[in-house]
Amino acid sequence: MRKDVDPTFPETYADFCLQWRQVVQQRPTLHHLDHTPISRIPFISALVVAASLTGCAHTDFLGYALDQPAERIELPKELREVSGLAWWDKDHIAMVQDEQGDLFVYDISRKKMIHDKDFGKRGDHEGVASDGEQLYIVRSDGRIYRTQGVSGKDVEHWDTPLKAQNDVEGICWDPVRQRLLLACKADPGAGLDPKNQRAVYAFDPASGEMDDAPVLVLALDSIAPALARRGQRSVGFHFAPSAIAIHPGTGQVWVLSAKDPMIVVVDATARVIDATHLDPLLFPQPEGLTFDPDGSLYISSEDKGHGRLLVFQHRTAR
């Protein structure tokens, strides 16, 4: 076959599913075949038959169907570059947008933004976390802001030892140890290998201090076997944490990566529980992740000039 006419047949199950979804999206009805190059028809036919046998449209990940969101919400224009999420209270999610010193609150049930508060100067604000009473916003250079709820009052901040080269993008509240977890996208610090390791540090708001050593070290070579078990690409992937959250039921740590969309789940010792690539059609640039108290999963993503929020309900794993 001519390579300039026929697409390369997918090498893995995940690649196959991605190409199948692209075919469905681009060729949703049979009359579209009238405009399809004849050389592509056998390939599309093979995808149609194989997809019906393999069930590409349904993939379970620790009880979540990450290719079947229960809701798809287009966020207001103010949140077109949403970079962080945190469950605040009943039906309300706190959000921050990259480059703005604004704190937003979105009402899930009413599908509208109900609060917009300026808490500081413009900057590279990457994540938000909640301890149930106060909100914490992290900047990529390691500065952490704390506000009294969504009012934005009594704003204070700490400058942690982390710097711009660490590129802090993820922050979440650890309710068991009463501390904040900070996930670094770039240089892991502490003498770690930036090519193979990513670091998560712990910050204590009560003392205003951060542990010198990371509390979690995620190694790419320990993530690869989990991807391989799922038949997914396990070499040459780029894992750069963009968000972090603790599952309310299991206590496991979920880490999101945006550049090469994927999720890695680890336990308190950084042992990899599971990992999966995400469909880039659903998650063009995922940068926010949080859970509600019942375990529903919320993931935000930037997409062609607007922000997108996807909701996933937990269910019994198949």
Helix-and-strand structural type: mainly beta
Secondary structure tally, helices: 3
CATH-level-4 superfamily name of the largest domain: TolB, C-terminal domain
Q: What's the CATH architecture name of the largest domain?
A: 6 Propeller
Low-confidence stretches: 1-14, 24-41, 43-58
Q: Quick one: overall form?
A: globular
Q: Please summarize the sheet with the most strands.
A: 5 strands, antiparallel
* N-to-C CA distance: 39 Å
Beta-strand percent range: 35-45%
As a percent range, the share of helical residues equals: 10-25%
What is CATH's topology name of the largest domain? Neuraminidase
What brief labels describe this structure?
2 domains, mainly beta, Neuraminidase, 3 helices, single chain, 5-stranded antiparallel β-sheet, disordered N terminus, 318 residues, 4-stranded antiparallel β-sheet
